[in-house]
Amino acid sequence: xxxxxxxxxxxxxxxxxxxxxxxxxxxxxxxxxxxxxxxxxxxxxxxxxxxxxxxxxxxxxxxxxxxxxxxxxxxxxxxxxxxxxxxxxxxxxxxxxxxxxxxxxxxxxxxxxxxxxxxxxxxxxxxxxxxxxxxxxxxxxxxxxxxxxxxxxxxxxxxxxxxxxxxxxxxxxxxxxxxxxxxxxxxxxxxxxxxxxxxxxxxxxxxxxxx
Length: 211
Fold this sequence. Notes:
By secondary structure, the protein is an alpha/beta fold. It has a single domain (2-195), classed as DHBP synthase (Alpha-Beta Complex). Helices cover 31% and strands 24% of the residues. Strands 1, 2, 3, 4, 5, 6, 7, 8, 9, 10 and 11 form an 11-stranded mixed beta sheet that branches. 36% of the residues are buried. The model has no long low-confidence stretch (mean pLDDT 91).
């Protein structure tokens, strides 16, 4: 199913169908502030496993990431100290993935790695979905083949053409971007930028060091 959503003033019935799909364990593709992504209700472990299979990802070897609506939600599913809280609040929403120690509220498939990536994209469509779902959204980049037309990761129609049979819903949020989130590992004594993406980290007045 290809479903159109706008930055604001969406039909509650259309939004409701997206939430119902996620609550039923469905897989969706949606826009973010970097690129289109694939995701599901993060607490539905079978749905998470299905995305890992689509991606060819081993959750025992790779960190999984979730989208949270606000800082309060983040604190439910990840452990963060005061400095990390201030760092994230200063930079979110935005194109960042913060690696934190996950909490016991996450399914076992996340706890296998003990760490979880936290996203809060600066995009109204996925943030509205996360707000209405009242739960985190598991998120992952779309699998991209080097031979693919760039449109298969930015054009909702082409994305649906390629992935429509593999997922339950593709959300058309308009033309997408080609980009990456900046990944910041917050699990050690210092913050480590392990991938520089679209986000420029503002760590002013933060007590811990950036390396």
